Amino acid sequence: MMCALALEGASADTPANCSYNDIQGTWLFTEGSRNGEAGLRCDHWTPEEGTQMEITLRFPNVATDSLGNEGTWTLIYNQGFEVIINYRKYFAFSDYKVFDNRTVISYCHRTRPGWAHDVLGHNWSCFRGRRTGQERTYERQQDHRMENLEDPHNSEAFADLLNAAQKIQGTWLFTEGSRNGEAGLRCNHWAPEEGTQVEITLRFPNVATDSLGNEGTWTLIYNQGFEVIINYRKYFAF
């Protein structure tokens, strides 16, 4: 493990709590018409009519569909996931329900209505996903009342988050400390006074290249930070 210089950010959370192991596996995506525009509202969309596609999400971040196309996928915190495949990008939050303003049931085997568009940001559509096999349902108690919980599905500003990647694209100078740490390494007060520097360029739609010629991928993590996977290493910072 290592420490790297970080960004600051903030966002509204959903109460869903789904892990990497809950999401990896084979999913059936049902996608609606692709004639929408940016800002498309999918809050109440139901997959009664739509095109179905089977997508398998494998370790570490490989996505393959039933037509043989290959892409990437990323868990977005513990709240949802993103898939980029066959020149389209899909994002959805994991499904959940709140009872008595305190008890949260996370349905990690299915998504809430999500958004899809091509890698150029056109041809928007709504979709829902359902994981095949065993259902993954978890119950937990909240420490606070939830009457005023903001659901990003009901926020018109959420569409803007999908364009936030434009603010991250560009060339970055990463300063990395010693690589002799272990899982759980605390980087809160780490300062990049001494470290190895590497220049990494993040390009559209999700291509990362470093100054040594290595190529990898990058993903915006909601509006809180970003992740880069390159040269057999993974970097994440807020």
From TrEMBL:
Pfam families: CathepsinC_exc (PF08773)
Domain of life: Eukaryota
Domain Cathepsin C exclusion: 13-131, 166-238
Protein name per its UniProtKB record: Cathepsin C
